[in-house]
Amino acid sequence: MTTKTSKRKPRPDIGAGLAPAAQVHYEDYLQLDKVLSAQEPVGDPSRHDEMLFIIQHQVAELWFKLALHELDAAIDCLQKDEIARSIKVVKRLKQVQYQLISQWSVLATLTPSEYAEFRNVLGTASGIQSPQYRVLEFKFGNKDKSLLPLYRYKLRHYRTLKTALENPSFYDEFLRYLYRVGHRVPLECVERDWTEPYKLHAGVVDVLKIIYERPDEYWAAYELCENLVDVETNFQAWRFHHIKTVERIIGFKTGTGGTSGVPFLKRTLDTAFFPELAAVRTKIGE
Predict the structure, then answer these.
(1) pLDDT tens for residues 114-158?
(2) Distances in Å between the alpha carbon of 208 and those of 128, 185, 283?
(3) Does the pTM of the predicted model rise above 0.85?
(4) DSSP class of residue 151?
């Protein structure tokens, strides 16, 4: 999980008592002993392709960690009315999304027969249980309080997810920003029960229509809107590639976590984080 950046004490094994020009070794700074010893296939006998499966998901979790780090920073900027800085951070977040999308092509080289050789060792482990991914969805606005009990097995995950559930999402903070700088965002959209998923509001569509029709006057908000459309598109592209990769490897088998597999994943394509940014396009020019 990720939290807001805080000052940390330097690691005692890095640079302690050394002169400013002293060497710091690459592998020590990156803690490569820990990182590269974390891939332990459990199949007996070990299967060649289990290493691919482990690394694929570990790398995704690292990108999720960076995505959350950047998303927290973007939210913090909006809370301070620093919209230009928020846009800069969102642009980096988009690049992280491209990495997450592109890595599906590596996992797609895993054939059904190769996966079948070690799938049983996963037990009930499933990507649906990823705490970081769930926090990412909550912070983008796709909140579902019924999922919270799934993470009671580890208190720190549960607390992090509960905090994300109970606080405004990135889109909530964007609407609150627009309200503070004078746009007529409906009050019920800026003060509400944050644990509930956001629902499209015609009043917000009207606000966005003004921003889109007068971009020179509201350039920063206009630019952030377009970047959020990119973020939504990227997220849907990631979901789509996830579906097609799963379909390619296991067909329509049930998921290891107990879901229906591909049919379950396909339902996620109907989820929209920023509904008015799609709806406003129909209104522009009317």
Answers:
(1) 999 999 999 988 888 899 999 999 999 999 999 999 899 899 999
(2) 34, 9, 10
(3) yes
(4) G
